[in-house]
Amino acid sequence: MSTLLAISSSPRRNGNSELLLQSFTGGAEDSGLTTELVRINQLNFLCCQACDRCATDGTCILDDDMKGVYEKVASARGMVIATPIYFGTVNAQLKMFIDRFQSWWHAKYNLQQSPVDKEEGRPGFLICVGAMKKEAYCENAESVVRILYHNLNYTYMGSLCYREVDAKGAIRERQGALDEAYEAGRKFAGYTG
Asked: What pTM did the predictor assign?
């Protein structure tokens, strides 16, 4: 059975981005996928130390929870990332997580040994939520996540971005938002092959 890796970067449990993620994964599960949730804020890991040791073999030398995450990303059939918008882009937790894939960048581009074969066509999706009205903030987050998916050899399939949603749980009041996430998850399941 195919596994969808669901990444929640919010420090708020059951906050807006995580509620949308739950709806998305619900739709994916109803379409036959199993899902595995990773809450970045619960991981014990350091930010990239820019030591460049990974340039020699594509492996990060830091011994922390990211080792298990690397295995999950390498074996998943698809991935969805949910993030709140902070200061006009992804939050710090997600950016720290993304930066730890520098080892995979070296594996792919310098060593030609990417942990994920591009030909497998693994899909990736983004969910983001922010309090501000500016559409550019969602676009900023989307740009960051697109780069991550490209470097991981996942295919970016799209996003759901909601603006002007701030208080915890307020996404429940946005008519159709949770249903839209559920349907996006159902559709996404079809891309996992």
From this structure: 0.96
